[in-house]
Amino acid sequence: MNFLQLNWDGLTEAVFFSAGLNYIRYFFMAGLVYYLFFHRPPTWLKPLEISKSKRPLPQNKRDVFYSFLSISIFGIVGILTYMMEKAGWTQLYKNVDEYGWAWWFLSLPVMVFIHDTYFYWTHYLMHNKKLFPYFHKVHHLSKNPTPLTSYAFHPLEAVVEAGIYPLLAIIIPLHQGALLIFFTFAFAYNILGHLGHELYPAWFIHSPFGKIFTTTTHHHQHHQKFNCNYGYYFTIWDRLIKTNHQDYEIFFRKNSTDSSQIKRLNISEKNVLKK
Ligand SMILES: [Zn+2]
Ligand SMILES: [Zn+2]
To answer: Domain residue spans in the chain?
Structure first.
């Protein structure tokens, strides 16, 4: 079938899964988390806030506006991927038996690894001085990010971010259910990166998980310091390319929940760092 011969059968489904679900996720997941952590935070959450610096008033409006645009672009890319599927260009499939349950489960971490690599390198490139103003500046306007910042991208960056969808669909066989779980996980992880509160204890950074996985502090520091900490799920590429901020671990320990408990008791932060 020709790419441009749009088959309307299933188009509504494609629009719903590529755009509709993202609007729902953004407004209910990011919106609800924002409300819980920033609008009406319980007292125990307040010491966990990473930065007390004020957010300029238009930040939320700008974040919601650009996120709305980004999600609309994700929807368009989703429809294009649907058209590619109809033209036989992708490896998307509906029947689990085609590749079995083992691949169904394995495809989840495979997608996460491919996405992390795709994100790291496109993100790294968008920090190039010539590309930054056109692609990535909008996202960095929020220096003290919140969950509402999660999808605040310039439309050009949104196209790059959405590119992972057709790329995955072309290079590996993917069941639609696994893809749906992956996108929900990616969405939740992105909110975690922009949570503005560190929920992990100090020991996390010295554990095998802390050596591999990013934290809220990791991405928060990226918003504050710019040219460091580019990873999405993992710090692997940052460690290999040496782009992790040199003070990341110290900054993490300062923000960790243990440190926050000590802050509550008014004990010097220096003692926490000595631990
Ligand atoms: Zn960046
Ligand atoms: Zn960010």
So the answer is: 1-197, 198-275
